[in-house]
Amino acid sequence: MTGTVKWYDSTKGFGFIQSEDNKDYFVHRTGILDSFLSLEPDMKVEFEIKESDRGPVAFNVKEI
After folding, report:
1. Cα–Cα distance between 55 and 40 in angstroms, integer?
2. 49: exposed, middle or buried (Cβ count in 10 Å: 0-12, 13-18, 19+)
3. b or e along 18-36 (b: 16 or more beta carbons within 10 Å of the residue's beta carbon)?
4. Cα(42)–Cα(54) distance, rounded to whole angstroms?
5. Which parts of the sequence belong to the CSD domain (predicted)?
6. Structural domains for the chain
7. What does the mean pLDDT of the chain come to?
8. Torsion sign over Cα 17, 45, 8, 28
9. Each residue of 1-20: pLDDT tens digit?
10. What confidence score (pLDDT) does residue 35 get?
11. Nearest to 43 by CA among 60, 62, 21, 25
């Protein structure tokens, strides 16, 4: 799935990605493939979705 970073707080280590179908997905720093990558607003990313106890979350996030 592809989308755009809505916002990401690198200090707190989480944010949200908006998919192409306008759904928002939570992303945690542990879901980013490249540990040196800092997500920036409007960055185009590719990711997968998995269910957590709090709903769907993005993982395997990488810049495209």
Report:
1. 23
2. middle
3. ebeeeeebebebebbeeee
4. 25
5. 1-63
6. 2-63 (2.40.50.140)
7. 95
8. positive
9. 999 999 999 999 999 999 99
10. 75
11. 62
